[in-house]
Design goal:
It comes from Penicillium cosmopolitanum. InterPro entries: Pyrophosphatase, Pyrophosphatase_sf. A hairpin with a 7-residue loop joins strand 1 and strand 2. The chain is globular, with a radius of gyration of 17 Å. It is mainly beta. The protein is built from two helices and 15 strands. The N and C termini lie far apart (41 Å).
């Protein structure tokens, strides 16, 4: 199946079998991680988000670093796709979740904020708008701030962002605005990232830096 992303006429998505979601542009296969620009416009702070998991979905999908062209694949354990449990107050994923192209948290470098190395993945982005995205969508999003999770002992930054087409986009400029218009949401979002692996028999994660929410600057 082939579809055109509603956020960019340049990018098409084609499914190769049931397991891999590949990206194409101009009739050739591309990597969503390496070939899609970080910024939508060099003069803007709006970035390209590759949606891996739509809001309320329970299927863990992710960009495959090990496969040519980095398709999106189900995250699996012992050959079975990971199905996430509901963590109150959310059903499935609490937001549209994905990666920011052209970014990487290196496992070989110590993060200057946490003192712990990165998780070897692109930067994660939590898009908190009302629109439910779709897997493989390229969303233009405005970063608002961030928090950092220590996930199984690795630094894992979470960029909080809003889609520029969302009704709230004109009202949200930084992380403080999120609390003003969505009171309690960020605290619940941090709690979800701490507890979502517990039903799998794993320990809770920790929000580093005392749980601090950082503005985009």
């Amino acid at each position: 199946m082939t579809s055109t992303c509603d956020e960019s006429n340049a990018i098409k998505i084609s499914e190769n079998g049931e397991d891999s979601l590949f990206f194409e542009s101009g009739g050739r296969r591309i990597s969503p991680w390496q070939d899609i620009p970080l910024f939508v416009n060099p003069d803007s702070d709006v970035v390209n988000m590759i949606v891996e998991i739509p809001r309320q979905s329970k299927v863990k999908m992710e960009i495959s670093k090990e496969t040519y062209y980095n398709p999106i694949k189900p995250d699996s354990v012992k050959g079975q796709s990971r199905q996430l449990s509901d963590i109150a107050p959310f059903r499935g994923y609490p937001c549209n979740y994905g990666a920011i192209s052209q970014t990487w948290e290196s496992p070989n470098e110590i993060d200057d904020q946490t003192g712990i190395s990165g998780d070897d993945d692109p930067l994660d982005v939590c898009e908190i708008g009302n629109v439910v995205a779709f897997c493989g969508q390229i969303r233009k999003v405005k970063p608002l701030g961030a928090f950092v999770v220590l996930d199984e002992g690795q630094t894992d930054w979470k960029i909080v962002a809003i889609g520029i087409d969302d009704p709230l986009a004109t009202k949200l400029s930084d992380i403080d605005d999120v609390e003003r218009f969505l009171p309690g949401f960020l605290q619940a979002l941090k709690g979800w990232h701490c507890r979502y692996k517990v039903p799998e028999g794993k320990d809770e994660n920790t929000v580093a830096l005392g749980g601090r929410l950082m503005n985009k600057q």
